[in-house]
Every structure is written in C-alpha cells, then in structure tokens.
Amino acid sequence: MYRNHILYLLEKYQTLVLVGETGSGKSTQIPQYLLEAGWGNKGFVIGITQPRRVAAVTVAQRIAEERGSILGQEIGYAIRFENFTNAESTRIKFMTDGYLVQELMRDPLLLKYSVIVLDEAHERSLYTDISMGLLKKIQRKRADLRIVIASATLDAEKFQQFFNQNETDDSSLDTATILSVEGRSYPVDIMYTSSPVPNYLDATVNAVQKIHETLPAGDVLAFLTGQDEVEKALRRLIDYARDQSGSGMKLMVLPMYSNLPAQDQMKVFQRMGKNTRKVVLATNIAETSITINGICYVIDCGFHKLRAFSADSGIDGVVVAPVSQASATQRAGRAGRLRSGKAFRLYTETEYNKLPQASVPEMQRSDLGTAILQLKCLGIDNVLRFNFPSAPSAKTMIRGLDLLYALGAIDDFGKLTEPLGIRMADFPLEPKLARMILVSGQYGCTDEAITIAAMLQVKNIFHSPPNRKLAANKAKRKFAVKEGDHITLLNVYDAFISNNKSSRWCQEHYLNYKGLMRSLTIREQLERLLKKFKLPLKSSEGDVDSILRCIVEGFYGNAARYHPSGCYRTIRDNNELHIHPTSVLYSTKVQPWVVFHEILRSGKDYMRDMTVIDPKWLYELAPHYYQYGTEREIAAKRLKVDHSEPT
DNA sequence: GAGCACTGC
C-alpha cells in the first residue's frame, strides 16, 4: 500500500501527518514497514501510542500474531499496571498516550526511540495533545527523531503547521508534511430529514421501525446520548419486536453502553441467525471504543454527551451537546465496513452544515490540575507559555495552578516543591488525593489513606438491582457510619478483606466484587509508592479523627456548609450543592459542615462521597486558603456574599 | 430520591 511513499517521506521530513480512515489497517501495517526499513536497528525502538488501553493491547497482539512472534519479545506493549516488553529485544512498543508522558519522566529525550507514532490523533485526547506539545520540544533537540501523526482528515493541516519548523516561505525547507492513504471502507449513503425533528428519541424508534419494514436485511446501529435514553428506546423497540413476531424477519434489539455488565456487552458482537435483524442502541462508546461488524444502517440522533469543565466554578460535569461534523462522519462510517450502507441523520442538511467541524479538544474542557503537575515535573516551568496544539484558556490554567499552590505542590514562583510536589506528580491520582496520602504519615494513618483513595477510584461499589433496592439499601446501612462516605468505604474494604475477598460474601451484601478487586490492585500500587517514599504503612488503630483530618488536608478546597435555604453551599465560592442520594449522609440528620470528593452535575450539582468535618479544622489545616480565621468570620463572609446576590 | 459519554497515570 503506501509503503515506499511513507518511508521516503520519513527520510526527508521529521514529521509525517498520515491521513486515513480508522480501520484502514494502518495501525498494524505502518509499524511493520518501519521495522522492515530499519527503524528498529541499533537498539532503537518504534513507539506507537493509542488513546485507549484495550487498543494498545489488541493491536500489539494482532501484529505479534501476524509475525508469528511471542508478545513481549519483538512486539510488546506497556500500559498502566502491565508491561509486556523486553528491554533488549522489543523493537515495536505499543502504549497508551498517557504512558508515553509517564515514560518521558524517565527518558526526557526519548533516546530509546527512533520513531513515535501517535495513532488516532484526531480524537484529541488530553494526553495526545500533551504528547504533541512535548514531542515538538524534543524534536528541536533531536533532529533524528521521527514523528508520525495518524489522524482523520480534519486536523491534518493544523498538525502539519504545528510541527513544521520552517519559518520561511520556501516550502522545500518544510520539516513536516501530509500524506493521505485511502481507507478500505465502502460508500455510505447519507440521508437527512427534510425538517428538524422535535424529539430524537421518538425519531430513532420510528427510524428503526421504518428500516425494518422497508429495507433489505442488514443490522442497525443507533446512536443515542446516554444509558437512560438507550434503555427507554430499548423498551419501546422490544414491545414493537414482540408485536411484529410471526411476520417475516425477526428483530433483536440490544443495548450498549459502558456501564452495562460485560456479559451483556458481549451480546452485541454475536451473529444473528439469517432471519433475524440485529439492532444495537448505543452511546458514543460505539463511535470509537468498539466496532460492531456487519452494520449496514446507522441512525445518528445528532447529539452526544461530553465532559465539560467550568473554570469559573471549578465544576466538572457532562453535558448533552450537538455532535461535530467529524463525529457525524465517524458514526456514518460505521455502516460501511462490510458493504455499502446507509446512514440516517435525524437532522436536516442545513443543520449539519451549521455543526462545528470538530469537537473542542479535551484539553480545553477539562480540569488541568494533574496535567500541569506532570508538565512541571517534566521541566516545563512556564506552563502558560507551553506550546499546546490547542491552548486551554488562561482561566483554566490559572485555576489549575491555584489548586496546586493551595495543595503545596508549587511555591510562590510556580516551582514544584521538594519533596511534596515532586512526589505528588508520581502518584497516579488526582492531586488532592495525592496530597492526602503524602501527609497521612503525619496523622499516623497511611494504611487508611491509601485504602480510601483506592476505594474512591472505583464507582458503584454498592450494587443496587432495581428489583431488590430495599434489601440492597439495608445491606449498605450495615457499613454506613455517621462520619460519612469515606469511612464507610473504609469499612467495606476492611470487611471484604476479613471475609477473605469472597465473591459470595459480596453477593450477599450487595457489593461489587470486581470493583473491590480492582481497588485491591490499585491499593497495592499505592502501597509500593509509599515504600518508594519511605513512608511506613501505619494504621491509626481506630482513631477516626486523625483520618478525617487527613482527608481535610487534601479536600479543604471542597468544603461546604449547610444553608438555611435547605441545601449546602461551598465555603469558597458560595455555589449551591446538594447531597447525592447515594451518599450515606442523604438519609441522616443534617450535618452543618462537610467536605466532598467531587461534584456531579446533572440538573442540580450533587456532592458525591462526603465526610462530616469540624469547621475548626479548615482554618487549622488551611489558614492560607481560608483567610478568615474564625468560624464567625467565615459566616460573616458567607453572609456578605449572600447579600450581594439576588436569590 | 439520582443515574455520566469516554479515557488515562
């Protein structure tokens, strides 16, 4: 395929932007071309990054198989917790883009590598963008390092300009170039509605029925925005399928979203009998993360859920937003992998033309605390001037810097503190939790701190099947304590260990066994980090106050106070907050002061994972953050803010 | 009485 062309351009240019549809085979072919052309000689390694762990593993597996080699030798992969590479023999190394950033801490100029391929760059994941900024810097010092950016069409020129070091008008001096490779997919007919659709859920259900009644055999993939919508549409289409039974072709309707248990997810990959049409109702998980073979018809509602971060309130949330043209193209393409297909867009062509070309990169809609910490650790002192492919707003950057300063990770000059800041960057956790763990030695509760941090990484520890909610709630109350969710999670973990990590015990107590096993692994990793920093593993032996104070050390910025209006308000910004119904504090008597782990935005702003605190701790532990010394003064400040706001 | 797409160290 474009073998010689690619190799020629890589000799001539430092950076090659390779444009081609996903699934065109380039992920597996290009690394092998590079290897055969000698880019893996003299001990050099060819590195390929992927935004997702599974992709890194499966592509590595596929190539190893093609070449008849054992995975972990010539072909290897490295992702968090798993390193299947061999220091001497590995020539092609797959990794996640996050892993590459981590690798840079050990090998700042990537001297081991001759080529780095950033695959799926058009997705613009947070770490792909960071990698691009860092690689550009490295290239100035290492003219021999080659970079391949593999992307879908839209961003190609932007990437080429970003990496091009030629500042003259003479294009023969360019250091970056673009090459388009053709995909192997089949044409897809795009259909639009003739007028705007009032309700895309109804329209999706109707479209499935119409396809089933009027179009030839072929499976259907419909994109909706969330679990809720998928389940709603599912119920209606199952009813429809039942009414249809007996008349011609059967209909098999299946849901697909990330929260769905693995065995149910697997069902969408099963092949149906000849007389059955499969309909998959999916979230955007089916846009990039998974590929279902045999889809001939795609229905695109025109919306998806996206992470959104507000630099003003510091609240991270998810919002429903119109898709971009790039997403719409990607969705439609899912119909043309087997033979030519049809994509039904539930919006007009005029509406399509008004859509943004591409979604805003993740970099520009995330909290950047962790990312800034990592950049500082890599020697980027002035992150505000760092060359990102799409720079985040100054406000977001300052918010991130503020947080790191408050947590003691950086000093007055923006320099990483020693040892706290440097150690925080080493933790695979958000900065608040990293600080909580690193100071836990002073509270004699390192043991409890890493357990709590590990438990907070896993969502849905408590299982609540819709038909047995009452029993599940009762089971949960057995672990619940008045101090709140953090100590409750600690109890659950301890009980899990003293019951020999029994899956049966979990089932009886409505606990998520897999989730608990995962927090066990994460906890082991954190324990290793404690050892690395020579912090002894020590339990507070039932002294709960020490643990609570330790939590406040990391989370004083997330403090809230009960407000007479019947909800909570953050101390710092006076934002309205509510208790999430999954909190153990939801059904107990009102506690005036709390800290929370995170805010969940869905209609209202909910605090998830809360702990009751003594307000004195706030100014004892964080006088620099709460400038007003006494509780009375904090209250006075709060009142002042209240008066200035019409409510 | 809620339910968030996805990903990563």
Automatic annotation (TrEMBL):
Keyword list, A-Z: ATP-binding, Helicase, Hydrolase, Nucleotide-binding
Reactions performed catalytically: ATP + H2O = ADP + phosphate + H(+)
SUPFAM superfamilies named in the record: P-loop containing nucleoside triphosphate hydrolases
GO cellular component: catalytic step 2 spliceosome
Example of a GO MF term: RNA binding
Protein name according to UniProt: RNA helicase
InterPro entries, sorted: DEAD-box_helicase_OB_fold, DEAD/DEAH_box_helicase_dom, DNA/RNA_helicase_DEAH_CS, HA2_WH, Helicase-assoc_dom, Helicase_ATP-bd, Helicase_C-like, P-loop_NTPase
